[in-house]
Write a sequence for this structure.
């Protein structure tokens, strides 16, 4: 296809591995990812060129795992730590993986010319079919964070047959009001762009403590992403409209996501309210809502192992990743699972366990570190509802 280039691409080590005490684990992970295994492409779409990075080739009828990052990040800053986690490596070796960078957000991107009109959020979603067609994907399982979660949800609403499942972190389905817009505009006039974006990414506690992760990302956002391009993406995200979806029965001709969805948000994350709102708009019979303790604003960075565990169960609920193929994960979790919590042939309907008398989430003997949140409507009980993610 015209405008496409292919290069060998090597992923760098995750940011701040020493902070999470995972030096050895991360080094072992990199041995699972051979040098030159990733390839970089620029793909022509109806709304301009799109930068993607891919590993592997379509495997039978399995979907591709396609990611989309948040505003202020790119695929490296958003997903490196997560995809280098050893548990995630065990999962992704069974799938082709495709990382999408929003226009102009990749490392080393050229500055957009003066007068360039950045694609709208709808148009960003409309660029993805070109990626699916280019690589011959039959379908995808999407993993999106923040703005990327919004884009993938929009894509699934427009092209439901191309999406088998979605993992949406920190999604806000609501458009910005005038007050929010004015507040953001004023903040942009008085603060450097990275400091304007950081409150969107991290919790107030993380920002107040100025954690090592926050310091690193302030520097990375400033040094690795073109600031003009970032401002364009930031402005467009803050001009988004409401996602037009509502739970069936709430309004006439309600439209919502048809595929299984796992919503994820951290404790006290800035997106918590938006994720709760999104949950109220989805079908409770195929929606899982996870609130992760001690994870801050970006759980994929601070709790990659626990998120990998949840993603494994999500895929198994869709009929992928049978226990026999989960060599390392199966071994490492044996001690925490009992025969009564077998996941074989079960379909994920939600991790929420609802008490039949009270209609409230029941209390597990040991509060799980990865906590479920009750849906606003009854949901099916998942066999691991009261299991702790170790």
């Amino acid at each position: 296809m015209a405008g496409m280039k292919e290069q060998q691409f090597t992923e760098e080590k995750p940011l701040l591995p020493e902070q999470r005490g995972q030096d050895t684990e991360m080094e072992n992970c990199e041995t699972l990812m051979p040098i030159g295994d990733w390839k970089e492409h620029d793909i022509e779409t109806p709304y301009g060129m799109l930068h993607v990075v891919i590993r592997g080739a379509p495997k039978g009828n399995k979907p591709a795992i396609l990611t989309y990052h948040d505003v202020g990040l790119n695929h490296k800053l958003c997903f490196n730590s997560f995809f280098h986690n050893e548990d995630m490596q065990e999962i992704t070796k069974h799938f082709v993986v495709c990382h999408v960078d929003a226009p102009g957000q990749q490392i080393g991107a050229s500055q957009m010319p003066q007068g360039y009109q950045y694609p709208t959020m709808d148009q960003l979603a409309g660029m993805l079919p070109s990626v699916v067609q280019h690589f011959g994907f039959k379908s995808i399982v999407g993993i999106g964070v923040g703005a990327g979660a919004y884009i993938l949800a929009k894509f699934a609403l427009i092209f439901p047959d191309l999406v088998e499942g979605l993992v949406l972190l920190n999604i806000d389905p609501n458009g910005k009001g005038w007050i929010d817009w004015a507040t953001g505009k004023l903040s942009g006039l008085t603060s450097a762009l990275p400091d304007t974006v950081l409150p969107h990414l991290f919790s107030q506690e993380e920002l107040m403590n100025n954690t090592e992760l926050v310091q690193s990302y302030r520097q990375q956002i400033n040094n690795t992403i073109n600031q003009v391009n970032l401002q364009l993406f930031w402005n467009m995200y803050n001009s988004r409209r409401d996602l037009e979806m509502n739970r069936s029965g709430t309004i006439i001709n309600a439209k919502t996501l048809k595929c299984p969805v796992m919503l994820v948000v951290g404790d006290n994350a800035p997106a918590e309210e938006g994720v709760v709102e999104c949950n109220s708009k989805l079908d409770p019979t195929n929606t899982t809502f996870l609130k992760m303790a001690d994870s801050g604003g970006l759980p994929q960075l601070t709790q990659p192992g626990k998120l990998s565990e949840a993603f494994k169960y999500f895929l198994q609920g869709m009929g992928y990743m049978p226990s026999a193929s989960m060599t390392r994960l199966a071994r490492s979790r044996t001690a925490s699972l009992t025969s009564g919590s077998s996941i074989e042939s079960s379909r994920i309907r939600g991790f929420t366990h609802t008490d039949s008398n009270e209609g409230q989430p029941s209390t597990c003997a040991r509060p799980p570190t990865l906590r479920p949140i009750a849906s606003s409507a009854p949901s099916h009980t998942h066999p691991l509802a009261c299991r702790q993610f170790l």
In short: The radius of gyration is 20 Å. Residues 102 and 173 are 19 Å apart (CA to CA). The beta strands are 6-9, 38-45, 48-55, 64-68, 97-101, 140-145, 163-169, 261-266, 287-292, 370-372.
